[in-house]
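Weekly modeling sync, notes
Attendees: S.R. (lead), two postdocs, one rotation student

Agenda item 3: backlog of single-chain predictions. S.R. asked that every request posted to the team notebook include the full sequence so nobody has to chase files. The rotation student volunteered to paste the first one in as an example of the format we agreed on. Action items at the bottom.

Example entry:
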Amino acid sequence: MGERKFLGIGMLGAGWMGRAHTNAYHTARYMFWAKSNWEPRLITIGGIDEKEGKEAAARFGYESGVAGYKQIIENPAIDIFDNVTPDPMHAQPSIDAALHGKHVVCEKPLAVRVEDAKRMLDAVNEAGVKNLCCFCYRFLPAVRLAYELIQSGTLGKIYHFSGKYYQDAGSATETPAEDIWYINWSGIAQGITSHLIDMSRFLIGEVSTVNGLAVVYNKMRESKKGPVNVTADEGFFGMLEFTNGVSGVLQSLGVANGKRSELSFEIYGSKGSILWDVQEPNFLHVYLAETVNPKVVGFTRVCVTEPNHPFMDVWWPKGHTLGWEHAHINMLAHFMDCVANDKPVAPLGATFEDGYKVAVIIETLNESAIQGQKLELKYT
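Predicted structure, as returned to the notebook:
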């Protein structure tokens, strides 16, 4: 195993994603111990004020808690700056951290505005630091198996990608605006469609053209301060053309009554097809046209928990399943390995370049919806 490399962790944000990432650092340390030479050290967590920072440090197990992020990025003991703040707060702290030589982890979407996403990408590139945009679903075993099946050619020529992400936070017309996450943040497109777009790019490849539709179903909502006009998209849809000729369809809803959080995709190829739904994260439905027994034809529900399946060599005995939190554990373990051993984060992990491209695709889909026509992707 050799000498272990201690990686100082500084986190900005003490909300529920802060809990998810902190759990990942704690758990990755001992689950990946036998096959790693790194070890996270939770040094500092920053809150809205010093009181929140200190409370978070005591709760999560950090050595200290502070207000904001300045003390975090100026601390020479910090190697990795992890930004789990709300969407509009992603840009400047991440840029400043890169300028201080910290490797940077940032939750998705990378930024609400394309201009900010580009500034973040330029900052990490100029500083030469490792960077990760947290599209965590790449690190679930079934999704990684899907990636491997596509990359190996098992599905043959890929024809079509179809993905959807449905939630129901805004279904009831009487729900106050304050209680609907996407109104208070940055809309369905940024909040959940960003995951779909990254998934399509990860599994299929680069997008060349898009045709979009954005919908606000409840343009007026009640709030604690009275009626408010709603501009955040509640439905976001897109038709995609990929550079390799594959077609794609994306569907996202915040008003899908009864759908708490359903992310799923279907991929169809000349030799087979695959289906996946995050509500059953350990199962990949696989159809292979060429079968040993022609009398047994159809989709096979593969439980991705065998020792030879992705990530399962560090987890539980075969048949024992993983959950949502394991995506973050696997993702941050990958990033720490890349930092400790100077490995590339891409293509398995999403970098700030991936986050920037997702931002451009969302903006172009929005512009397409306004113009009512198909548009080409352009990156600067």
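Discussion: group reviewed the output briefly. The chain has a mean pLDDT of 96.
Action items: rotation student to repeat for the remaining queue; S.R. to check formatting next week.
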